[in-house]
Write a structure and sequence with these properties.
It contains 16 helices and no strands. By secondary structure, the chain is an all-alpha fold. The protein has one domain. Helix 4 packs parallel to helix 7 and helix 13 packs antiparallel against helix 14. The N terminus is likely disordered.
Length: 483
C-alpha cells in the first residue's frame, strides 16, 4: 500500500523466489503458485476495497458535501498522526523476528497483545489531555469535539495494525485482508444507516462510525488469533525491548511516510480551509487506489524475503518492481483517459476541482509504488534505517515545497509537492538498495520479456484455479442433490 521470471527451476539454486521454502513431498511445480496465489488473493481484497472505498467516498461526499468531507478527514487525521507516531514499531518487525530470528509465534502474539494494549491506553489518555491545548493551532477551523472523538480510535488502530502485521508475517493473508474489508465495509453500511436513524451533526456521526468500524476490525483480529495460538498477555522484557529497538527505525520511516502522505492535507487546511481539503481528498483517494496492486505484491513478498537467502530475495524483488512499473503505468493511462468522467459521474461536476491535482499526483504514484515494494524488502532483511532516511529526505522536500507552492497555486501545489517528494524518496531508496544488494536500478525498473510472459502465465493459473474451485463446488452440489 499491491511481481517473476523465467527459466529457473522452482526450488533450485536458480529459483527466482516464488512460494515458501520447499518441504518434503512438495512438488517443485507448485512453488510459483504460492506467491501468485498470495498476491492475487490480496489484490482481490484490494480490488474489493477499491470498490468499497469509492462507494464510501461517494456516500461521504453526497451526505457531507465538500466542506463536511474536509472536516471529517481533518477530524480523524489527528488520531492517525498520533497512532503513527506512538506505536513504537511493534508490528513492523514481525516478519524479521518470526522469519530470521525464529521467535515462537505464540510468544510474539502475546507480546504484541501486551504492548498494543499498554501503548494504546497510555497514548490515548495523554492525547485526550494535551489535544485541547493545541488543537486550535494545528487544526484551525476544525471543531474540538471532532478531534477529541477521533482520538478514541487510537487503541483500536494500534491493535489492528500490529496484528495485521503479525498475520502478514505468518503468511495469513486471509486474516490480514478480512480485517481491512471489515473496517471499510462497516463504515459503508453503518454510516448511511445511522444517518437515517439518528438526527445529529452528520460529520460528528461519521467520526463515531469510523471509530466503531476500527473497533470491529480489531476485535475480529483478536478473535482470529485466539484460534491460532493461545492468545494471552505476555511481556518478555528482553524480547519487547529488542522488538521496540528494531521496530523504532522502521516505525519512524513509516511515520515519516505517513507525514509525507498527509502533511499536505494539514497545510491545505492551514492555508486555504476545510472545503479545499474536501476537494483534495478526492484526488488523493483516487491516486492512492493505484497502489493497491503494488501493495498486494509487497505484502506477499514480505514473508518470502524474511525467510529466503539474499540471492533469491534479490531476484524476487527485482521482478516485483519491474512488474509494478508496468501495472502502475497502465493504471496511469486509465486515470488520464477516464479520470474526468469518473469524477463527474460519481462526485458531480462540483468536484472537478479535484481533477488537475489528481493528474499532478500521478508521477508521485509511480515513484511511491516502487518505493513501497523495495522498502518492504529492506525491512524484511533488517534494514529499517534506509527507509527512515529516505522518508526523512522526502518529508523535508515536501514541507518546503508545500509551504512555497500551496499559497501560490492552491491544492495543485500540494499535488506537485507530493510528486517531487516521492521522487526524492524512490531515488534514495534505490541507491541504498543497490549498495546493500549490488542489484542495479535497471534490474528493478526496466521491464523484460519474461515479465510479460509471467503476467500471462499468472493470469492463466488464477483463472484455472477459480475454474477448478467453481467446478468442485458444482460437483459437490450435484453430489448433494443426488443424496
Amino acid at each position: 500500500m499491491f511481481c517473476q521470471m523465467s527459466g529457473s527451476v522452482p526450488g533450485s539454486v536458480n529459483d527466482p523466489g516464488f512460494g515458501p521454502v520447499l518441504q518434503t513431498g512438495q512438488s517443485k511445480r507448485e512453488m510459483p503458485v504460492s506467491f501468485i496465489k498470495d498476491a492475487s488473493y490480496t489484490f482481490a481484497t484490494k480490488l474489493t476495497l477499491l470498490i468499497i472505498g469509492i462507494f464510501s467516498s461517494i456516500i461521504s461526499v453526497r451526505i457531507l458535501g465538500a466542506e463536511g468531507k474536509g472536516l471529517f478527514t481533518l477530524g480523524i487525521i489527528s488520531a492517525s498522526v498520533i497512532f503513527n507516531l506512538a506505536n513504537l514499531g511493534v508490528g513492523t518487525g514481525a516478519g524479521y523476528y518470526l522469519g530470521r530470528k525464529k521467535v515462537e509465534l505464540e510468544d510474539l502474539a502475546g507480546n504484541w497483545l501486551s504492548l498494543s494494549v499498554m501503548i494504546g491506553a497510555v497514548v490515548t489518555v495523554l492525547s485526550l489531555a494535551v489535544m485541547p491545548l493545541i488543537a486550535g493551532s494545528i487544526l484551525p477551523a476544525v471543531p474540538l469535539k471532532l478531534i477529541i472523538t477521533g482520538l478514541l480510535s487510537i487503541p483500536f488502530m494500534i491493535l489492528t495494525f500490529n496484528f495485521q502485521m503479525l498475520s502478514k508475517a505468518n503468511s495469513d493473508f486471509l486474516s490480514y485482508n478480512i480485517a481491512e474489508l471489515i473496517q471499510r465495509l462497516s463504515f459503508v453500511v453503518f454510516f448511511p444507516l445511522f444517518i437515517l436513524l439518528i438526527s445529529c451533526d452528520r460529520v460528528f456521526l461519521a467520526v463515531v462510525i469510523y471509530i466503531v468500524s476500527t473497533m470491529i476490525s480489531a476485535f475480529f483480529l483478536l478473535l482470529r488469533w485466539s484460534r491460532v495460538v493461545r492468545l494471552r498477555f505476555r511481556l518478555d522484557r528482553g524480547l519487547a525491548g529488542s522488538v521496540v529497538r528494531f521496530g523504532i527505525k522502521g516505525h519512524l520511516s513509516n511515520f515519516l511516510g505517513f507525514l509525507n502522505l498527509r502533511l499536505d492535507i494539514l497545510l491545505i487546511n492551514y492555508f486555504i480551509g476545510p472545503a479545499a481539503v474536501g476537494f483534495y481528498s478526492i484526488s488523493v483517494m483516487i491516486a492512492e487506489r493505484m497502489w493497491y496492486l503494488p501493495d498486494a505484491l509487497g505484502i506477499a513478498l514480505y514473508p518470502k524475503v524474511a525467510h529466503y537467502d539474499d540471492d533469491r530475495s534479490n531476484r524476487a524483488t527485482a521482478a516485483v518492481c519491474r512488474q509494478t512499473m508496468i501495472l502502475i503505468l497502465l493504471s496511469i493511462v486509465v486515470v488520464l483517459v477516464a479520470g474526468k468522467t469518473v469524477i463527474r459521474l460519481f462526485y458531480t461536476d462540483s468536484f472537478l476541482a479535484a481533477l488537475i491535482p489528481l493528474f499532478l499526483l500521478l508521477p508521485g504514484v509511480l515513484s511511491a509504488g516502487i518505493t513501497r515494494v523495495v522498502s518492504s524488502d529492506l525491512l524484511a532483511r533488517g534494514h529499517p534505517g534506509v527507509n527512515m532516511a529516505a522518508g526523512g529526505a522526502a518529508l523535508a522536500v515536501n514541507i518546503i515545497s508545500n509551504i512555497i507552492l500551496i499559497p501560490r497555486i492552491g491544492i495543485s501545489g500540494a499535488a506537485v509537492s507530493t510528486s517531487i517528494s516521492y521522487f526524492v524518496q524512490v531515488v534514495v531508496t534505490l541507491i541504498s538498495f543497490k549498495k546493500i544488494t549490488r542489484v542495479a536500478a535497471a534490474s528493478l525498473l526496466i521491464p523484460r520479456y519474461e515479465d510479460l510472459r509471467l503476467f500471462a502465465g499468472a493470469l492463466n493459473r488464477i483463472i484455472s484455479s477459480f475454474r477448478r474451485g467453481s467446478s468442485t463446488r458444482e460437483d459437490e452440489g450435484d453430489t448433494g442433490g443426488g443424496k
